[in-house]
User: Fold these one by one.
Assistant:
Number 1:
Amino acid sequence: AQKVTQAQTEISVVEKEDVTLDCVYETRDTTYYLFWYKQPPSGELVFLIRRNSFDEQNEISGRYSWNFQKSTSSFNFTITASQVVDSAVYFCALGDSNYQLIWGAGTKLIIKP
Amino acid sequence: SQTIHQWPATLVQPVGSPLSLECTVEGTSNPNLYWYRQAAGRGLQLLFYSVGIGQISSEVPQNLSASRPQDRQFILSSKKLLLSDSGFYLCAWGPQGYEQYFGPGTRLTVT
């Protein structure tokens, strides 16, 4: 079965701490894509990253980094030196062979000043 | 660049009333279009998706329907709203591939 698990329902850290959001996926496909989206309090989902199954290089974009490991079926997201503006719900998703996204339940991240 | 519009932003409707939510995309052609619903504090539930004009696939049986009368227009409708239809409705578009880009959403409260 295709599935995405975000085991952390809510994480709360103090500003400037580093925080990692976990994402574990299950798929039968050999070619697939993984995504992270951010949903701030305003509600609109913001696309952060897409990673395909053949590219296991880690990605860094400013304070954001992503660690993709096929051996453990994980695609974790780390925010370095967190800021209050990072407070949001973060969703991990898996793109299946029918071009549909299978969504995790989301992790609510609270950054306290 | 591509832009996706949704309206209205908020809506309060009585039980049994009809519903029409509209979504339009600019700056692209032949996009995949999606309607999602998100209950308060919950994840995303795919309701409908469309790969072309008049082509609608339903993911969840319910009293909602969708239509795509034009290439870049996607409409979500109901003839009679239920209390359980309350939620945050998100429209998304995607190129013929995987990633999806979301509109600002409509918060629907059925009273």
Note: Chain A has a mean pLDDT of 94.
Number 2:
Amino acid sequence: GNSVTQMEGPVTLSEEAFLTINCTYTATGYPSLFWYVQYPGEGLQLLLKATKADDKGSNKGFEATYRKETTSFHLEKGSVQVSDSAVYFCALRIQGAQKLVFGQGTRLTINP
Amino acid sequence: NAGVTQTPKFQVLKTGQSMTLQCAQDMNHEYMSWYRQDPGMGLRLIHYSVGAGITDQGEVPNGYNVSRSTTEDFPLRLLSAAPSQTSVYFCASSYGDRAATEAFFGQGTRLTVV
């Protein structure tokens, strides 16, 4: 089946630290991969995506590379800010499927 | 820009009560979905619709009912609320079913069943 596994949270970092949130997946088809972010009290919004192997998605200083050989889509940011505190969800979607398959989410807290 | 609008934002129900969670989108999207978010479990699909008059079940449909009479609206009905339905509910919409299509989410409805 299709599934997404994210690193366990919560994650707490100091401002300007380097961030990695691991995400691996299993898929029966050829998926597109997404990172969604949920800020406190808000819905999910797309952070970045990648649609084929070796694609790199980037937005707001965050990056993730679609690694087919390791079935991974790790989220990275070189220098986090307090405003990055949120819950991050890795997700996949198979062509023709309505369903987004989500990981369990990782709560990130950045301390000043 | 309204996007996806959900109402209410918060609701407390007693066991056995029924209610409808409202969802409306103004982007003329064909595809709409309902997810529930539970701690440690990510989001799970309840029901979805690929257009007006067409709905189908997701992975956790029991206890919920949907209909899609217009492109804009996709209400979720709880028939007889149970404590296991305490959750945060998100409505989402998207333009098509291509894998790369972005889904747009509402702000969520936090439901507590006592």
Note: The mean pLDDT of chain A is 93.
Number 3:
Amino acid sequence: EVQLVESGGGLVQPGSPLKLSCVASGFTLSSTWLNWIRQAPGKGLEWVASITPDGRDTYYPDTVKGRFVVSKDNAKNTGYLQMNNLRSEDTAMYYCARGGDWFAYWGQGTLVTVSS
Amino acid sequence: DIQMTQSPASLSASLEEIVTITCKASQGIDDFLSWYQQKPGKSPQLLIYDATSLADGVPSRFSGSRSGTQFSLKISRPQVDDSGIYYCLQSYSTPWTFGGGTKLELK
């Protein structure tokens, strides 16, 4: 069974870093894209990062470029989202999702709250 | 960036109706369009990929179509369980962008 489980969310102060994890099971991360999507409270979905199967290429929207870094450890079958210099507008539920052209499987999400 | 304009923002439909939700892309995206359903407190679920292909396990009352840069999700004879928020996503070019969402209420 394909499963994605996020962790690492929490309450942090503005300017702080935070690292999210996404543990995959039922498939290997080395064979697929891994993506991160967030959803601010009561708002829509926003794509925030993607990494290619071989991990060589990463992609970000301008809203997080230079602050967020996506990576993965294929040996641990785990993906990561390192978030630096967090802002209040980064407050959201963060989901990891498997897939290239579409997101076939999603995790249950981990909540990040940025507040002083 | 490619903008995805989704409409309507909300709708209320009866169980006998055909529900149609549309997404219009600001430029050509070929068939790089997928649809998702999200229920309260849950993560989104894939319904349609490549504009018209039904995802595994999704009921056949859901269908997708394309006309140029306009994409539609149709639900034929919706069930009460189809209530939720629906999103489109373009994956033609980064940044991948979602539509604003459509909140569907079945009455």
Note: The mean pLDDT of chain B is 97.
